[in-house]
Amino acid sequence: MPVPEVAALAELNEMVDRWGLEEEGWRIRSRPRTIGEYFEVEQPHLKPLPV
Prior knowledge:
This protein has helices at 9-23, 35-42. By secondary structure, it is mainly α.
């Protein structure tokens, strides 16, 4: 994948957020759940981001 060209860090962050949402429904090879479903299970175990 080529390096994205952006005018500001905020624009890059928006692109990354959009990619994450697009990939939520993807399955990795023959795994039974989507990426989003695995994240739903893992999310409660993650620490909150610092302020």
